[in-house]
Amino acid sequence: MKIQERELRRDRLDGRWVIFAPERGRRPYEFHPADRVAPSSVGACPFCPGHEGRTPPEIFALRAGHSRADGPGWRVRVVPNKFGALGAGRTFRRRTSGLIEFGAGTGVHEVIIDTPEHRREWPDLPITQVRDVLAVWRSRLAALETDAAVRFIQLFKNKGREAGASLSHAHTQVIGMPVVPADVARETARAGQERRKTGACPYCRWIASEKALGKRLVAFDSHFIAFAPFASRFPYETRLFPTRHSAAFSGTRDEELASLAKIIRTVLAALRRVACDPPYNIVLRQASVAVRKGDARSAHWSLEILPILTHIAGFELGTGMYINHVFPEQAAEDLRK
Amino acid sequence: MKIQERELRRDRLDGRWVIFAPERGRRPYEFHPADRVAPSSVGACPFCPGHEGRTPPEIFALRAGHSRADGPGWRVRVVPNKFGALGAGRTFRRRTSGLIEFGAGTGVHEVIIDTPEHRREWPDLPITQVRDVLAVWRSRLAALETDAAVRFIQLFKNKGREAGASLSHAHTQVIGMPVVPADVARETARAGQERRKTGACPYCRWIASEKALGKRLVAFDSHFIAFAPFASRFPYETRLFPTRHSAAFSGTRDEELASLAKIIRTVLAALRRVACDPPYNIVLRQASVAVRKGDARSAHWSLEILPILTHIAGFELGTGMYINHVFPEQAAEDLRK
């Protein structure tokens, strides 16, 4: 196959340049591949049924009618993160002193245990189970939005050590925080400018254009579209949008959840095939709570599915840019096969 | 030791919030530690003396008087990156189409081989050798600044697999690119605002304030200061500034180079002791070439030394924020010991 020429790309919404350099995929690599499989025993796992006492008391669970809170019998279980990045009990007040700003680390950090089965990954779960997990995502996101102290919510999933997981049992995390990340605020401002210029939601336009173009499409149905973004940060990165203009995941309709479960599983199964079951992150991208409750005409949620095949290094840490050796047109073709 | 309360912090120049959550350092970790040592043989290494033919022809070298280009006898050697992220031979023209921007991947990607010795890391090198490497950094940065196609230069060092290195033989990389990273442009704008408000370089003020405060200091002498930044992204992160207002590394004076070599070695040796010889990145932070050649009153270069003890995960990829479990005041105390 002919190696493509290098290219610089960015989407103007997030503003981050990405360098595409396919030849870098050929460079010699001296280190041993990471041990991807974590052969932990069920016995040590705090997320397995029968070990409910090893987590803080549950916040929510989908469970069999006769079963009791903090005992077995659940299908999906939500608990506070025992080692939460943020915690309750104090009030956030932003303080400034010269060039620095700070405040108490207040907020919410929850863990959603995706399945009672220790070794099942998402592509191995029944569609109904994935849909149940997504329904729990929706309900936790909706609950956190009612918390006046929460200004921004980040939902994410770390699968595999190289993707930042510390435990292998499938789980999702949700962090509700009292500040809006600078990158998110910047993207919101840009999306608003675009909407004022064109009169339309820029994400809706983006979706229509990728659908019409086709060459970066990975999968779609009547509710969702998955494509390899023009300025993908990572090889085989996929972005997944609801085709209906929808500001927040919490507004997802019941009939959309099953469709979303199917399309996520399709992408993850393709990724497993194409990239040898890689570590990955799933990242929810949506605007701040205030923006979504206010003028949501240019807010449109999406999910990123980010395979972790390379390490973030000095270049990325210095510039905030990325180097990707797989063009999204190639990635989409491989993932569609 | 009492665990400190969680805190949110940011410095207003880069604008990125960091969550400090010391308790996260205690969470269970199921995976095996990474194999940090890459016991590669000299035989396979393209950076070892005698293997000069395995790299593209050298751009520059410090070498013994009688030795010849692309043969042994060098102390520091600079070659084009054989698998460069950017390359020469085309012209960058930025093109916009709807929400996307792109252009040819033009630029420069060089590798500086820090030492002929395959297994020597910076803390093991003589001070004179480290000073020689820094002198080569200076000369390559100065050379790239004269290239009209180069708008921004990123110099960085990846040490260890988890820090993104693909080869273990000590080396530094320099990428000259035709665009300015969004994060850098944002910081430049903020630094300019601060200068106009106070009349002084905000970095000079920052240095003075850390020196006066003392509790985050790691090391200093008459030319440089190293401290653990208030909003450190990583455990045991160190930031190293010239105390003289200086916009670009290329302007470093001869007498400053030896001092810089000493202070970097001091920090790296402390890091090796405190964090068990971790993988790390060294990242040069400075403004774009145009800013540094124009109004450089609020441009002030620095180096970041970033130990990689945890993986970047879904939270960081979604928000651009970081979670750090070691407060910089503690990090500085440990590193000073």
Give a verbal description of the structure:
The structure is a homodimer of 337-residue chains. In chain A, a hairpin with a 3-residue loop joins strand 10 and strand 11. In chain A, the strands form three sheets. A ten-stranded antiparallel β-sheet of chain A has the order 3-4-7-9-8-13-14-12-11-10, with helices on both faces. Chain A has a three-stranded mixed β-sheet with strand order 1-2-15. Chain A has a two-stranded antiparallel sheet with strand order 5-6. The first copy, chain A, is built from seven helices and 15 strands. Chain A is an alpha+beta fold and 337 residues long. Chain A is globular. In chain A, helix 1 crosses helix 4. The interface between A and B is large, with 100 and 100 residues. Strand 6 of chain A pairs antiparallel with strand 1 of chain B.
What are the SSEs and their pairings?
Two copies of one chain form a homodimer.
Chain A: E1 7-11, E2 18-20, E3 60-63, E4 74-80, E5 95-97, E6 100-104, E7 108-113, H1 127-145, E8 152-159, E9 171-177, H2 182-198, H3 202-213, E10 217-220, E11 224-227, E12 238-242, H4 254-274, E13 280-285, H5 289-293, E14 302-307, H6 314-319, E15 322-324, H7 328-336
Parallel strand pairs in A: 2-15
Antiparallel strand pairs in A: 1-2, 3-4, 4-7, 5-6, 7-9, 8-9, 8-13, 10-11, 11-12, 12-14, 13-14
Helix pairs in contact in A: 1-4
